[in-house]
Design goal:
Elements (H helix, E strand, L loop, with lengths): L3 H9 L6 H13 L4 H14 L3 H13 L14 E5 L7 H10 L5 E5 L9 H5 L11 H11 L1 E5 L6 H11 L7 H14 L4 E8 L8 H17 L3 E8 L7 E3 H12 L5 H17 L6 H13 L2 H12 L18 E6 L4 E6 L1 H10 L16 E4 L6 E2 L4 E7 L5 H9 L1 E4 L8 E5 L2
Parallel strand pairs: 1-4, 2-3, 4-5
Antiparallel strand pairs: 5-13, 6-9, 7-11, 8-10, 8-12, 9-11
Helix pairs in contact: 1-3, 2-4, 4-9, 4-10, 5-11, 5-12, 5-14, 9-10, 12-13, 15-16
Bound molecules: uracil and calcium ion.
Length: 434
Amino acid sequence: MMRMVDLIAKKRDGGALTKEEIAFFIDGYTTGDIPDYQVSSMMMAIFFQDMTEDERANLTMAMVKSGDEIDLSAIEGIKVDKHSTGGVGDTTTLVLAPLVAALDVPVAKMSGRGLGHTGGTIDKLEAVSGFHTEITETEFAEIVNRDKVAVIGQSGNLTPADKKLYALRDVTATVNSIPLIASSIMSKKIAAGADAIVLDVKTGSGAFMKTEEASVELAQAMVSIGNNVGRKTMAVISSMSEPLGYAIGNALEIKEAVETLRGEGPADLTRLCMELGAQMVVAGGKAETLEAAREKLQAVIDNGQALEKFKVFLSNQGGDASVADDVSKLPQSDYLFEVRAETSGYIEEIAAEEIGVASAMLGAGRQTKDDAIDLAVGLMLKKKTGDHVAEGETIAVIHSNREDVGDVERKILDNYTIGNNRVEIDLVKQHITE
Ligand code: URA
Ligand code: CA
């Protein structure tokens, strides 16, 4: 008979667990037969001893098998999903869904509300009057087959083993382990039914992984898991040393997405969408090379098909598509406040995480899952890293529904570093394809 204590000892001493051994402890933990203290000991052993490629793939699939798996087989074509390891003001999903769908890559997105500095993708889309994600699975498949893009709310009991493990790791100092993070993220994407997965692994001060080296290691671990279990997986390593684009907030990000789909978006957001989009188009089998994919993406931005696809996407799900022609129809805040630089110089750094917190202080995000969210509020950055400012010049505009925003203004000023160095951010650092 298999005993958990023997598996812990094997891993503690540097051994590799078999597929059956991994399935034993993941199944036992999910059902409650194996207690927290033994699994936390196993997590610590993995933290120090690492896992082989086979172990990582087996751990991922054991977590996938712990719950429901979404079946997207009613949808034609290679379903490509994108995942970002988290950033501030990350508007890429809103841009990429219609952008790659315009090239016939099916985007069958299951999305959640989530916690954070702004809402999740569904919250942002709900800033468009009438838009909803309460569609049946049949409607979902029909819409994607016809128009290539739809978003449905999360359903089913996906990866319960990951939920339990993540909570346990959080309180046992074992979150920060490459095999554990990689298997956790990949199990959720695989259970959600993607055939191919494009990962945006953030690096820098505002990211989970602070150094490029660690980010590359995480990306390689996830790409290798995906490819080892039959899901084509690629990654981009991108900088999160300042917020992405100018907008942080729900309606504000819809407006930014519209501008980007029109070819008039912020340079950094546009660039990242082109790189991730190119990988999605290649993974979806609609171009041979990243170079060819970029050209196709540029063409649908230039000829208006990307923006047109966004309108079709919104109206298919009840949304008022005319916001794409007139963004003033989006929710507006009652007050605008300009935040002015206290000194002159170059913007050397914008602490992404803290700027996200400033936006959350206005009510743009939620801390617990039952919090209400204010879709109209947020921040518009006017200056980014490398820009020059004069004392008194506006660096950001606060969109608020409360009259006193002194605390938010202070937070923004404290997290913009102004100095003599003209820093240049290298946004897209690497493509990882194996
Ligand atoms: N995000 C996840 O989903 N899992 C981890 O383990 C870490 C970050
Ligand atoms: Ca943004």
